[in-house]
Amino acid sequence: QVQLVESGGGLVQAGDSLRLSCVASGYIHSYVMAWFRQSPGKEREFVASVSRTGGETSYPDAVKGRFTISRDNGKNTVSLQMNSLKPEDTAIYYCASYRTRAYGAIRSDEYDYWGQGTQVTVSS
Description:
four-stranded antiparallel beta sheet
């Protein structure tokens, strides 16, 4: 079991950049890692995922080209670089992971471990 702790959220203006980090309590080399987000009144939404080796990444159209997920297995960290932020990116961002399934999950119920979340607010 791995515990995840996010950091890096904050208040920024539209067009700005922000980098989120997720630190795991143990080795993450066998875990698929991802970021989700949730805003008030909405379901938790898939933002990005990265395969165990970092060789594959996946993004929904809403963030593709603006967000980049990366991982450092040696430091047990996952990052989300967010550029050209928009007000609609405002949400709590969660780090998530799973170990036993093949890479490719995009539903929140497919992920086993979650962080506590970090708030990102983008003003217009």
